[in-house]
Amino acid sequence: MSEQNLFKVTIDNITIDVPAGTTILQAARKIGGQVAPPAMCYYSKLQGSGGKCRTCLVEVSKGSEKDPRPMPKLVASCRTTVMDGMEVKNITSEKVIDARASIVEFLLINHPLDCPICDQAGECHLQDLSFDHGKSGTRFEFQKRTFKKHDLGQNIQLHMTRCILCYRCVFTADQLTQKRVHGILDRGDHAEIATHIEKSLDNEFIGNVIDVCPVGALTDKTFRFKNRVWFLKPMDAHRDCPTCSGRVTLWNRGDEVYRVTARKDEWGEIEDTPDGKPGWICNTCRFETKNAKDWVIEGPRAISRQSVISQGHYQGTVGMTKPNETFGAINEGRTPHLLMDIHDESEVNKHSGYTSKNNIENA
Ligand code: SF4
Ligand code: FES
Predict the structure, then answer these.
(1) What is the pLDDT of residues 304-336, one digit of tens each?
(2) Which of 93, 114, 172, 195 fits as disulfide partner to 89, beta carbons 3.0 to 4.6 Å?
(3) Which ligand number lies closest to the CA of residue 77?
(4) Which ligand 2 atom sits closest to the C-alpha of 37?
């Protein structure tokens, strides 16, 4: 067996050895936790992905053992390979934190703030990124771009207004299916994901574009507006599928299966099957097999404790956490609607002649 050439790299003061050719992002993921930069366009299961969004920027404070000069600019960690002796700063760099806040501001220039009605809420990478790095205000003074919603076939809806042009869905269609019929049309401010002549995406593996989309631009029409992800219980399940691995996560409420997705790892990417191949799932498993009896349930899906999805679902492994106190007990017997009358507190209805007095008299 040939000996692998290992490089020593230090990221946020933690040193590891990685094979030559490893990117800074992959090395940081080996360390794990906060040291791994966020990635909105890179997807390890898709060849050629990365280099589009700039959320993974890091500072290289020492180039290598042979040439210790720092790199003059922040670099995209998903596209930069490590050198022996390289030193990298991610969360320990003020420049990086500052740049990341600007990237979030940039990504939100056109992205609508419609999280309360978006199906991706609770599992959106842009929502997490904004929560960690965003600012409360915006300097953007113009209209955001808007687009009509498109049905891309029977089961997928495209909300171009939410797209951040990461290209992941294009690579997925290109690499998983024989016939890609969508891509990015036009350039600059006019760039958009489109099927050009509104062809539908009907390949048997095309549903995977929903799983790779980091935002809510591509959504599952069999699930849209049916429930919020944090009210559902994710369960690992499998079936004997002739087309794909059949290993999925079922999103249940009671016995009802609301949604079927591929299993995702801690980076939000499709998990590998035991034979080491990416566990993409077919359209039949995803859209048409929504009866619990079709599946062999393996058990609750492990979800990060930090995720909103795990809130209120499991205590330890299984169980419900309920508060012991009632609202009335905390507020000395007062019921919520007696606490505050919005019309006494705000002048919002002043010019319409509507007051809390009208409200009471007309009630
Ligand atoms: S639709 Fe989603 S996956 Fe496709 S380019 Fe836009 S953000 Fe990326
Ligand atoms: S994840 Fe590296 S540029 Fe998008």
Answers:
(1) 766 777 765 554 444 445 555 666 666 666 665
(2) 93
(3) 2
(4) 1
